[in-house]
Structure formats: C-alpha cells, structure tokens
Amino acid sequence: MKIGLETESYHLQFMTGRMDIFQFIGKTAELGLDGVMINIVKWPNLPGWGTLESFEPEYLKRVKAEIQKYGFFAEIDTNGTDPVHLKQVIEVAHQIGADVIRTYTCLGTYDAERLKQAPENIQQIVPILQKYRIKLAVENHEEELTSEVIRIIEEVDSPWVRAHCDVGNAMMAWEDPVEAVKRLAPYAFTTHFKDHIIVHDGDDYRVCGVPVGTGNIDLEQIFQILVEQSTLTRINVEMCFPYATSFKRVPGAGGVFAVGEGAFKVEQPPYELSFIKPLDYYEPPRKLLEKMIEDQANGVEQSVKYTLALRDKYCR
C-alpha cells in the first residue's frame, strides 16, 4: 500500500506563500511517502488554482518533472461536476501525470439539485477520461451521504467513475465513519485519511480536524477495511488541522442522531475558545498564525508516522 499526502495538510503555509507545490513535493519525499494529491480548488482572494500557480503548459511540465524526480504517484483534487471545468482538469491531470481526479457535488451546503444533475454531467466527460486513462472519484464531501455518492456512481455506470472515500467527512452528514467506509470501500479509487473530534462552540457543536491518530475515529479498523474490502493501492493522508466545520445535514440524516458516543464523543477544542473560535481555525488571525502553522507542521509529521505504522502492521 502506497501512502500519499494531500496538499491541504499544509494549507496555512500555502495560503501565506511560505510553501509552493515544488516545496510540498520535496517535503513529501522528506517524510518518506510515495505520492502527492494536489488540491486545485481556488482559495478566496488568492491567485492561481489552489496549490498550482497556473495551468500554463510550461509550468505544468515543471510540476510533472518534480513529481517524476521522486517516482511519486500523483492525483488531483477539484470540485463540482460542470463538464467544461472537469474537461479542463482532466487535461491538467494528463499534463502532470496524475491518474485520479477527486471531485464532489455540493459546494458548501447540501444541494439536492446538484446531486440530481451530477450523473448527467459526469457522463459527458467519460470519453475523455477513457481517452487519457484517468479515473474520476466522487467524494463524500461533508454534505453528501454515502448512499448519494453510490447512486451517482451507479447512474453513471462507467468503469472510469467510482468513489473517493473520505474516512471522516461522513460525520458532517451524521453518518458513522466506520459504516460509511464499509459502504464506500468496494467502490473506492482513492481516499482521504484523516481524524476528527466533536467540540463545543458556544451552544453549537462542530466537527473538528485533529492530527491523524489523536481523534475519536476508529482509524485502525478503517485501515483494515480499506485493505481487506477495497482494491486500493494508495491511501492519502489529509491532515485537516487546524480546521472545524458545522454539521451539513440534519441529525439522523446518516443514521446518527446525536453527539456523545464513539466518533461523536465531545472533547475539548484544541485551542481555548477565548483565543479563537473553531470556525476561525482555517484562516486564523495574525497573532495566532505562527503558532498554528507550527502546530500544523507537527500534526503532519504525527499523522504520517501513525499512518505508516498502520501500513507496516496491516500491509507488510
């Protein structure tokens, strides 16, 4: 099993200009990993395409060369199902040597109409996926239930379109993460391997990312499921810390009705509420930025160490 790293794991360094894609690729090699998942979802008020500065051919050649220098696999993360956009992303993936593209349907809030339209949109880009031998993986991205992802896959009915199994996102839709992984594993082309806790935020609860292995998701069981019940040859660490978000569906939508037990056990937030509110973690104030960048970097190292230990235990 190869282990990769998603660029989102260092989002604070990317967003502040302290890391670019070439430095990220080098850091991934330094951590002893096998590949990269490159997020090209645009960040608000920042130029470029997420962690890629542009889609210009000469720039993409340089990215591909850096990936090949380390013998890495490469995957791309995008969003939406607009056929015009996805065709452009497929061309970019082809140019950098990425063979899997992650996308998702809803963009921040649950949108039944987007879910309904997704199969028809995706069917339009299947021929170009086939042409370039690139796979499209539809993610359970916070708003979607696993059953809704599976419905899209079955309606598209193409060997080039399957699932992206995010092992934590089901919680935002009130779905037990272990059960969600069991459902998606047989369909999975790729993954995000992460960890979560539930935290108080005033009268509300938030799903909060933490370094892999320090939260309440049963990641050891999930790793076993991915090894035994999928055809995956790669698992990608996406260390979503510091990050917190609201629940995106009503309680019970995914079978869990309340916080309190298992993965939904309530813990203290990683930072005092008087310092920073959980929903502000992703873009912290300047006074906390240095500390949170350091915490994120330490969290990546901790997450990688934990995931590699699971690989050694279950795949070697």
Automatic annotation (TrEMBL):
Keywords: Isomerase. GO terms for molecular function: isomerase activity. The keyword Zinc-finger does not apply. Pfam families: AP_endonuc_2 (PF01261). SUPFAM superfamilies: Xylose isomerase-like. InterPro entries: IolE/XylAMocC-like (IPR050312), Xyl_isomerase-like_sf (IPR036237), Xyl_isomerase-like_TIM-brl (IPR013022). It comes from the Bacteria. Residues 27-229 form the Xylose isomerase-like TIM barrel domain. The keyword 4Fe-4S does not apply. PANTHER family: BLR5974 PROTEIN, HYDROXYPYRUVATE ISOMERASE. This is Sugar phosphate isomerase/epimerase. The lineage of its organism: Bacteria, Bacillati, Bacillota, Bacilli, Bacillales.
